[in-house]
Amino acid sequence: MCDHPEKKKVLSINELEALFGQEGVRPTALRELIYTTLAQADEALSLGDIEVRLSTVDKSTISRTLHLLEGVGVIHRINDGTGAIKYAVSQIDAEEHNESPHAHFYCLRCGKTVCVEQTTLPSIELPEGFTPQVLDLIIQGVCPACNASKKK
Prior knowledge:
Helix content is 34%, strand content 16%. It is of the alpha+beta class. The chain has a domain at 13-99: Winged helix-like DNA-binding domain superfamily/Winged helix DNA-binding domain (Arc Repressor Mutant, subunit A, Orthogonal Bundle), CATH 1.10.10. Strands 1-3-2 form a three-stranded antiparallel sheet. A three-stranded mixed sheet has the order 5-4-6, with no helix packed on it. Strand 4 and strand 5 form a beta hairpin. Helix 2 crosses helix 4. The chain starts with 12 loop residues before the first helix and ends with a helix.
């Protein structure tokens, strides 16, 4: 789960299954397990992180499931500049099934990547003919936990 000042809204299993039904995706225990693993994490997780947490599930199955969950819109990928794609649960509107754009924060000390929902994203005007597809805003710095441990 991405870190937020307020409590993160994650889908219940019933809501997840209902969304799967709307999208024509069969709910399975494994899909629910991977979603729940991301929802319970206090940071964005890479494929390797998930593989360690779910050691009985093979990497290719996790990868395919992440791709499916991303396609449904319940998780999103984060390229935080470390070279490893990370995944986090999307803050989606239960009615519209879309996520509001937001920034991500990468801690240079502990390596955690978290969502920063309450961020005003900059307005970027592109030259004529350019059509934006994705906007990734990664803020690098030191997280509150690392700042607190430094002061002790």
